[in-house]
Amino acid sequence: MTSIETLIPLVRSGISWPVPEVGTVGFMEWNFQTAEELAAALRAGEVTSAELTDEAIARIERDDKAINAICVPDFDRARAAARAADQARARGEDRPLLGIPVTVKESYDIVGLPTTWGIPLHRNYLPAEDAVQVSRLKTAGAVVLGKTNVPLGLQDVQSFNEIYGTTNNPWDHGRTSGGSSGGSAAALACGFGALSIGSDIAGSLRTPAHFCGVYAHKPTLGLAANRGMVPPPGPALPTDPDLAVVGPMARTARDLTLLLDVMAGPDPLTLGVAHHLTLPPARHERLRDFRVLVLDEHPLIATGAAVRAGVNRVADALVYAGARVERHSPLLPDLTEAALLYTQLHFSGAVARFPVEAYEQFRTLAAALSADDRSLGAVRLRGMVFSHRDWIEANNRRELHRHDWRQLFAEFDAVVCPITPTPAFPHDHNPDPTKRRLDIDGVEYPYLDQLVWAGVATMPGLPATAVPAGRSPEGLPVGVQLIGPMFEDRTPLRLAELLEQRIGGFQAPK
Q1: Which is catalytic among the residues 180, 184, 196, 472?
Q2: Cα(11)–Cα(33) distance, rounded to whole angstroms?
Q3: Is 395 helix (H, G, I), strand (E, B) or coil?
Q4: Which of 215, 334, 409, 445 ranks highest by number of CB atoms within 10 Å?
Q5: Would you call 143 helix, strand, or coil by DSSP?
Q6: The sheet that has 143-148: what strands, in order across it?
Q7: How far is CA 399 from CA 245, 299, 341, 403, 404, in A?
Q8: How far apart are CA 150 and CA 116, in angstroms?
Q9: How far apart are CA 259 and CA 276, in angstroms?
Q10: 204 part of the active site
Q11: Quick check: is 105 catalytic?
């Protein structure tokens, strides 16, 4: 039953949040049950993994032609894994994900399946071993249904490539599902598996979750091992890439925590030799005890009305629950400098594997820039040709920002802010991203400028949980991110769970 207390912030926010009618298609099916509910049903003998897997496959075969989320199905091995899970349970075994159908982002290595990153040159590349996170999924008992679609080289806010085509948004097929984990977000929204794993460097977990109305968690930098999430045909080495993380996606906040517990921990080939992970508990268990800083404006880009309404809806829910909510703080690191640092660090790494000829072209273009040009486009171009000395200087400034964040999180438990300035936008496949434009309430902005909100958490390596926060007037999902203290991932995750109880969460597309 919805309380008056819950309805007040919903009405004030101006964002619609339709409640599904009893018997709505999908809500009585196993496909839309949470991983936690499926695990309980499996333990109680109410359903078998083979039944869950067959139902998931049937739904994919029926509905994915219009969405194109599952780019590499692996149904025969999934059915075999489901039978093995049922046999293991019959022997008395019980593991965190035993028998639960899941999907995996295409960029993760899985033996027997291609890993292409959407790059045509590598369409036939087959890795020799599973990524460490795929191994952890299998060890936990998960049944892998297949791989989900990505953009070319994982370098877009959309998910389309020459090999697998375009993934559509389940709410509006003319719009993007997001990127680069867009296939995973769309799969979850459509009931194609209970969980998925993705990656994030520029919002690649959070943006698709925001666009498709699901949950995602960008872990603290270094929390989850990423070996085997490497561009083909590179060897699966236990490296520590700057900024990039791997993380969970789900349809509820509690399922995010369940999957993060499977994924978290150092690589057994490196730090795992000597280190054992113990995440601290959430700072609070009740909404009224949280201290939250709410942001809805960025100095470098406008915030669309639909996204601002989503942020305000969350803020209202926090206020009515009795949480301490502030809109401004002198402790907040400078968002402009943070965006410039993020842009420099991100784009210096993004072009590291580009051919020498392309690098030389960037150098020529950067040299031609006016010294007075301080636009984000100019910062991106200069970042592409950073020297090592330049990178060290930027990294030192990042450490100063991390220190500022530590001071802020001594006074606050979380920061609520947008993920991108708009809900999902129409497909735009212009091969030159610098020619694309993002429409924010009728005003056009450079397409890549929308990354600044993702960079708020990415640049200092902070954990951030993407949560649904209602719908736009057009009926599109709107999400926000909850940023927490470094290595205190359970704090934003617990806040996400409590907000889900108060304002609702995932709803299946009609």
Answers
A1: 180
A2: 28
A3: helix
A4: 215
A5: strand
A6: 70-73, 143-148, 101-105, 195-200, 245-250, 215-218, 464-471, 477-483, 414-418, 291-294, 324-326
A7: 18, 22, 11, 6, 9
A8: 9
A9: 18
A10: yes
A11: yes
Measured distance CA(305)–CA(380) in Å, rounded: 27
> What is the number of other CB atoms lying within 10 angstroms of the CB of residue 352?
12
Q: Which of 105, 107, 135, 184 is catalytic?
A: 105
Residue with tokens 């993994």: 49
Q: How much is the average pLDDT of 188-204?
A: 98
pLDDT of 40-91, one tens digit each? 999 999 999 999 999 999 999 999 999 999 999 999 999 999 999 999 999 9
The model's pLDDT over 133-145, given as tens digits with 9 standing for 90+, comes to 999 999 999 999 9
**Domain locations along the chain:** 4-11+28-270+284-329+412-503, 335-403
Residues, the chain, total?
510
Q: CB–CB of 448/158 below 8 Å?
A: no
Main-chain phi, psi angles of 70, to 5 degrees: -90, 100
* β pairing state of 172-176 and 168-169: antiparallel
Kindly tell me if the per-residue pLDDT of 289 is higher than 60: yes
Residues 60 and 54: their CA atoms lie apart, in Å, by 10
Residue type, 121: L
Is 375 among the residues known to form the active site?
no
- Count of Cβ atoms closer than 10 Å to residue 436 Cβ: 18
Question: What token pair was written down for 488?
Answer: 């205190």
- Average confidence score pLDDT of the chain: 94
CA angle 312, 210, 244 (to 5 degrees): 115
Q: How many angstroms separate the CA atoms of 415 and 373, rounded?
A: 31
Check whether domain 4-11+28-270+284-329+412-503 has CATH 3.40.50.300, yes or no: no
Q: What 3 state SS string does 26-80 have?
A: CCCCHHHCCHHHHHHHHHHCCCCHHHHHHHHHHHHHHHHHHHCCEEEECHHHHHH
The DSSP output letter for 277 is: -
pLDDT at 509: 96
The single residue of 159, 199, 204, 472 carrying the catalytic annotation is 204
